[in-house]
Amino acid sequence: MSQSHAADACGQSDSIQGLAQSIARPAYSRLLNAEPLLRRAVPILIIAFLVTICVGAIVQVLDQNRRKDASATRDLAALGDLLAARLANIGGLGADRAARLDALLPSLIPAWGLAAPRHIVIASAERRVLAHNMATPAIALADLMEAVEPLLLAPARDGIMRIALADGREALATLRLVKSLPGHVIVVQESGSSLWSPDSMLALTLSATTGFVVLILGFAFHWQSTRAREGDLINDAVRGRIDTAL
Question: Where are any strands of DSSP class E within the chain?
Fold first, then answer.
């Protein structure tokens, strides 16, 4: 009686095991068949992701520099218009207008107009400097006037022009006519846009860190899949030997 029960239990166990294999085996077989394709697709996807990250970082850096240039251009134009309007409202300055303008210039510049590195020069119609507010003493006034010479000769004097300073750096400059002097006010701002600004470095660092993490994950996936495949081969070999022995 016990032997019949044991036989029935073994038969039920074999039927359950066969049912489990019939359910799980097709999925496992499909996974094994898809593994070579996945192993080839993962490096391609990682490379595509890294290229996307690099392109995104470059676009972000260029967009940040573009926004900085646009903001500097708006501030420069607004400051030039404001200084020209304030100078036009000043009455006769007399023979010592250079000394009076030099004393009045700090009070004419608004607080937001003192952003460094920004230089303000008031010149006469004969291009003689009447007053100036140099942000950095490293730039000589004569070199600055030589750099803005193209702006003085340009027919359109209400726009923004990119000029080259004596030391090779770029700067933005604008000029406004003041008929009451007569003369003009010149505002020059050294270009602060650089690929190595703190914002750009942060974006590049985050992109590089993300790319490094993705590479590590891809290497771990490749290593683990290789080990799993080797384990499957060893398991198949052992099973074949057992079947042969039985």
Answer: 118-124, 129-133, 160-164, 170-178, 183-190
